[in-house]
Amino acid sequence: GINAEYMGCVLAEDCSEAAYIRLVEALCGQHGIDLIKVPSRQQLGEWVGLAKYDKAGNVRKVVANSCCVVKDYGEKSKSLEMILEHFKGGKA
C-alpha cells in the first residue's frame, strides 16, 4: 500500500494552490503518512537538490517545490531520531 512505500511527506506552506495543500494533507492523513510543513517552496527546492551553486558554494538559482515524498530516511542520526520523536508525540 501507499503507507508501506512512503515514510513521510514535506509540504511547503506557501504553496499558492489551497486545493493542492488540502489534497496532500488528506492523502497523508488517510494513509498514515507523516507530514512536515516547511515555510517556503524555495527552501524545499534547495533541500531536495533543485538548486545551483557557484564555486564558493553560494546558492545562485533554486527551483521552487511545493511537496516531496520521502521513501527512505537514509542512515540513522540524531536529527532523524528527533524528527521521528516529533511524530510519535503527535506534534506534527
Strand order of the largest sheet: 2-1-5
Note the total helix count.
Answer: 4
Instruction: Please state the structural category.
Output: alpha+beta
Shape: globular
End-to-end separation: 22 Å
Gyration radius, in Å: 14 Å
* Major β-sheet profile: 3 strands, mixed
Poorly predicted ranges (pLDDT <50, ≥5 residues)?
none
Would you list the SSEs in sequence order as H and E?
HEHEHEEEH
Number of strands: 5
Keywords:
92 residues, alpha+beta, three-stranded mixed β-sheet, two-stranded antiparallel sheet, 4 helices, 5 strands
What features would you describe in this structure?
The protein is built from four helices and five strands, in the order αβαβαβββα. β3 (51-53) and β4 form a beta hairpin. The strands form two sheets. A three-stranded mixed sheet has the order 2-1-5, sandwiched between helices. Strands 3-4 form a two-stranded antiparallel ribbon. The longest helix has 14 residues, at 18-31. The chain is an alpha+beta fold and 92 residues long. The protein has helices at 2-5, 18-31, 41-47, 78-88; strands spanning 8-12, 34-38, 51-53, 59-62, 67-70.
